[in-house]
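Tutorial, part two.
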Amino acid sequence: VLAALGVPDGASGRHDGGAGAPGSPVDLRSPAQVRRALHDVGLDLPDTRSWRLEGLAAEDGAHPALGALVAWRRAERFAVAHGYRWLDEAVRDGRLRAAWSASDGGAGRMTASAGLHNLPRELRVAVRAEPGRLLVRADLGQVEPRVLAVVSGDRALARAADADDLYSPVAARLGVARDVAKVAVLAAMYGQTSGAAGATLAAMERAYPVATTFLVDAARRGAAGEDVRTAGGRRVRVPAVEEVPVEAGAAAVDRERAARAARGRYARNAVVQGSAAELFKAWAATVRARLLASGDGEVVLCLHDELLLHVREDAAHDVAAGLARDLEAASARWCRAVARPPVRFTADVAVVERWSQAKG
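Running the prediction step on this input gives:
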């Protein structure tokens, strides 16, 4: 990077202190210094945000400093998050160890420290089964729209969930391509109203009125500062928004309106994502109980909608085959508990030696 910026040999933008190496004319961690260095080689940029540098670096004839700087930043983020300090704190006896939370954030998902939820693929290759064992990785498929079908009681969306790929029957019902249908479903759940996402919302409202009405009601309550609840009854707190009088000025009123809209989007998604977290825990507990009874292995990681199991090699394929049955049993039990008709849930399952070998 420094060579591309014309920095003299021997200067370094990377060091242990983190605040600028003594005698170094450019600290690559300093946006102001990087911007000045880029200006010196003929690149006058308003800022050095990564998205801007990445876009410019991808253009034909881009200055070599741009690509080098983008690559350095990626390597720097990797080193900070998963460098020697991470190894010292999180890896002991050849195992990656983390602290667990059974219900984290508004969604109440299971989370873990030590960067397990965003472990780079370059490091997942190092997560491997012990001799005589294999990893079984299972990931819930399209879980949030399927959960939406349950919690809203929308039978049309529930029928779409009968398919392995929920978005295909949704696309047929909307009369659009599958990719457009996926955008429509996600836009409804996340409250996206602009661009291509917004254009599909009206079609979703016509095709799946029960589900969209459920989401709109959650958004309305969130915008009003009211708490919402998951299907299992857990309260998700929504911060209140202080009402701003018109006399405060247009800018203040706009800020209040934006804050209410943001809380509405948060509540709209929380009722789905929080309910999905409950289903996932029911599934994880069902799988764990089966493994404890059989002695075939154990759950070693719960990651968003993914389970990672460490099992005996001779039992791996039987364990994998049982995951679909566990999901069917857990989802049926959960649907009964929340007083809703059952909806089909699916999981992608792989038996691997290393975590990196599983797709997704």
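The chain has three domains: 1-82, 95-143+278-357, 152-270. In part three we will examine how such features are distributed along the chain.
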